Amino acid sequence: MRKTTFSILFIIVVLLCFTSCYSVRIVSSQGTVNPDPMSERADFYRDKMIIELDTVVKASAFTDEVSFIASGTRCKSGKLHSVEYKNSFGASLLYLVTFGSRRKVKIKYVCLKTEN
Amino acid sequence: MAHTTTYAKTSWDTLHNNGPFPLKYLQITELESNSTLPNAIARYNDATLEIQQLIQQALAHNQGFRAYGSRWSMSSIAHQKDRLHYNGYMNLDIPIPVDAVRSDSPYQVENLFFFQCGNTIKEISQKLSQSGKSLKTSGASNGQTIAGCISTGVHGSALDVGAIQDYVVGIQLITGPKAKDVLYLERHTKPALTSAFVHQLNATVIRNDELFNAALVSLGSFGFIHGVVIEAEDRFLLHRYVRKVDKQLALSLADTMDFSSQVLIPEAVDRNGKPLRPYHYKVFINQYVNDPQYVIEVMYKKPYVTPYPDPFTIINKSLYRDLIHLLIKISEKYPKTIPWFIKKLEKQILPDVNEETLGTLYETFWDAPYQGPAFACSFGVDHKDSSKVLELLTKTTLQEGPIPGIFAMRFVKGGKATLGFTKFPITCVIEIDGVLWQKTNKLISLKEYSNKMITVLQQHNIDFTLHWGKNADWSYPGLINYMYSAKAEEWKKFRTALLRPELARVFSNHFLESTKLSDSVSVVPQDLIVSL
Questions:
Q1: Interchain CB distance below 8 Å, A38 and B7
Q2: B11, B85, B122: best mutation site toward chain A, by most A Cβ within 10 Å?
Q3: Which among A107, B63, B71, B352 has most CB atoms closer than 10 A?
């Protein structure tokens, strides 16, 4: 009985650790956000043309920096309004156990509106 | 060519979730790229043709067509059940050369700017700043498009300046699919652009004060506002102070607008120690506490000089939206908890007392992040009635509520727009805003609450108006007549003269019908809208 309780608690703690996360967002004081008239979101990104990156980057143990380029049809201006980076316990653990060869990246960014 | 994408939709909502409202089609127009069509006027005219095609389509299908920008209005003024047109990507600015301004114009050419409808206040402010210029005033934030602002009468609290429409000097309208339906309006007593320049925009000029004043706050119903000419001024700084002052003093200033006999801010005085007149004055009122003091926000205009301290707070934190949602759900079931919640959230709702900032208009009235479903009921009254009306409205709120919001008062100089809701010499805008709630058996609906407030003001013979873009019981019997009487008839007369009947239907919507402003006038003088 005690063993079962311990197992359940352990699983809960592990699950909480994996889901525990926080995010930090940097926002430019200048420039106008690229709007999204089709947006139905109900958060900071409401009416903003958001681009989300949620991937695992494969790298060697000797890879230092990883860059993403802001471009494409959803980012015609190529200029940034805001970037949000989300960190989680799972992502940090993945980085540690793979010695940096698997890097979980979760980024949301919004570009500036194109000037006409 | 500019191109439009049409999406079949079933519903549409405002930014603050005051809907949803039914919809058939959402149309989004994007301009031709400037690499293909580098000339701004050519791109603008290309967009004119595209909009005319869309109007023709609506006409052919016997459907309504209405433009919207940032969907910040909380009333249904921006909604059309058939075709809604998003114009936020139509953000050209057209340089006005020296020879494009008439020699008899009272405006200085360097202060005139031509903006396409989808430019937001933020975009315009940044573009003006590149020329060392600034808007004269804005709303409390910067996300509205210029066409949306003037259509609904967006205002700040510039007590000697006015609302946004009051610095518009020209409006380009598209009233139909024909070539003759492209118009440029300005006042004949204050002309700005030469006819030769306007002809480059393929528009017919009508210089007519009364028509212009009617079209200034058009509720989106005089046609498609494609572009506006505004008068800017030299860039300036605003020194902003937040203070807590005696309630009687705050109300006395509101009623009199006399800032000369009381030193509010020790450093805001002239060489003789006489208090300066503020650019902006705002009073915050938590109607659920009996505090002998009110929080006020006061701003003084200063010349633009650099350097000045960074006006932005570097770290911004916000409440969990889920927490607000939970609080409102509890409030709906147990309304008596609302005053306690508001008291606890006062730090998030009100500015910090003794806060001071120095910045441009753009920096002072910066971004307002989305914070979930919201409401706002906004009355315009003569500033001399400020304290009386505040007492009536707060009393009603305590009797009928509590309601999850708090009051504030702002002050705006009157303008000339026929249906401008800032119609008094200085209008006190008394507003309650807060979190949108659902009616329960213990809490009245927002429409019922608005109805009670309108009724109490009418019972006390208070002359008032309502902000077109805010929540209200817009179908309240005789409401428009009570607020505008002959002015409403005048507005309808000009609309009838300007739009052919089939186009008047295209540019109408449920809001206009429920307020009876869509009604045409049977007798209209033939020369009503001639150029003078």
A1: yes
A2: B122
A3: B71
